[in-house]
Amino acid sequence: MTEIGFGERVKGFLLSPVETFQKVKDEDLGPLMKYFVVLTLIFSILMAVIMIGLSSAMLSILPVKLPFMAGTAAGGLAAVVTFITLLISLLIGLFIVAAIVHIFVYLLGGRKGYTQTVKAMGYGMTPSLLLGWIPFLNIIVGIWALIVEIIGIRELQEMSTGKAVLAVILPGIIIGIIVGIAMWLAGPEIPSYPTP
Q1: pLDDT of the residue at 193
Q2: Which one of 5, 31, 36, 163 has the fewest beta carbons within 10 angstroms of its own beta carbon?
Q3: HSE of 80 in the Cβ direction (CA atoms, 13 Å)?
Q4: Buried b (16+ CB within 10 A) or exposed e, 102-140
């Protein structure tokens, strides 16, 4: 089996994900990790650059002007923190999200293994990692990535489209409900007044 190149993977997962998932079906996690690390580095760098711009804009509207070096240091620090946080959270998050999704994949009949779910989720994030740093476009790109992830689960776990949609969407809905209930329970207590 010939390993497909980086550029071919990017183009494939953006424009023809079904065929591209078929090409990577028999691979282990090595090629995915190389691919994912490169895209994560690019995304983290671009987000750090945006953070520098946002920091500069925020500092320029302050009523008290900071010395140039202080403003530059603040922007640089924000960029470094953004870069490191994104890099670590995306790399670790891939395996956590894949584990959560894989529970639902398994419950819905997917039996091709956790590795296939990691590949589906990792490659499925291609649109977000390439274009998700662009303000306002990131919402559309997020939906695009979700669709590619669903296609990945369907192809790599050999499930129906409906089951793949449920496997990817249900964890988010359930986590959203749990967070909503927790916020509601932790919310401020409404005082009760005695009735006359």
Answers
A1: 72
A2: 5
A3: 6
A4: bebbbebebebebebbbbbbbbbbbbbbbbbbeeeeeee
**Residues 164-193: b if buried by 16+ CB within 10 A, e if exposed:** bbbbbebbeeeeeeeeeeeeeeeeeeeeee
Q: How far is CA 148 from CA 104, 124, 145, in A?
A: 17, 5, 5
Q: What is the pTM of this model?
A: 0.86
CB neighbours of 1 closer than 8 A, spacing ≥ 6? 26
Look up residue 105 and give its two tokens. Answer: 């994949």
Radius of gyration, CA atoms only, the chain: 21
Q: Which residue has the tokens 């986590």?
A: 175
For 8, residues 6+ apart whose C-beta sits below 8 A from its C-beta are: 20
Please state the rounded mean pLDDT for residues 91-97.
97
> Of 49, 56, 44, which is closest to residue 84 (Cα–Cα)?
44
Note whether 10 and 17 are within 8 A (CB): no
Dihedral (CA of 53, 126, 142, 181) sign: negative
